[in-house]
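Tutorial sheet, problem 5. The two components below are modelled jointly, 225 residues in total.
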Amino acid sequence: GENVEQHPSTLSVQEGDSAVIKCTYSDSASNYFPWYKQELGKRPQLIIDIRSNVGEKKDQRIAVTLNKTAKHFSLHITETQPEDSAVYFCAASIGGGYQKVTFGIGTKLQVIP
Amino acid sequence: SQTIHQWPATLVQPVGSPLSLECTVEGTSNPNLYWYRQAAGRGLQLLFYSVGIGQISSEVPQNLSASRPQDRQFILSSKKLLLSDSGFYLCAWMAGGTYEQYFGPGTRLTVT
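Model answer (structure tokens):
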């Protein structure tokens, strides 16, 4: 089955700096890669996703990149703000029908004011 | 628009007691449904998923079971809770043929 590895497990950045979280996946058939943000005590929220036919996607201060050849994808957050502090999960799946989503272990991001 | 509900929001149960958590989805038909567990400070562990009424697949053998008696209803049960069953239980849904998965608000279970 699919295996998703995520790193780092914790990340501290100064407010205004950039943060990068990296994930690798094992199943070359995976074609959908979402990122979730989970604030303390709350549900994971889908913040951005990318499909395998796209190399990069951007939404305001967050962007995702995908390298299908190397089987890795990354989340980039620019101009970080204290409200970006949360746990971020990457995931991989084979989309378009019934699908099981495999999650990474999570990265705890702390933005220091 | 689609909405997912879970109840109860919090639950404290003694070891050995039964469990029933419910999840319902509104605004969609024949969704894929999922149960996840998240231990404190940990990642998301997939417990069960369902692609239709009465169709349940188990990911992790344990003392939990799941049922889908109606199209938009997903139930997680246990006959006898263990201390290790404590955690944050999340139901999730996905519209068939799509890619995005959305989570419910969760149930925080403490087994004492």
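Marking note: Chain B has a mean pLDDT of 93. Full credit if you identified this.
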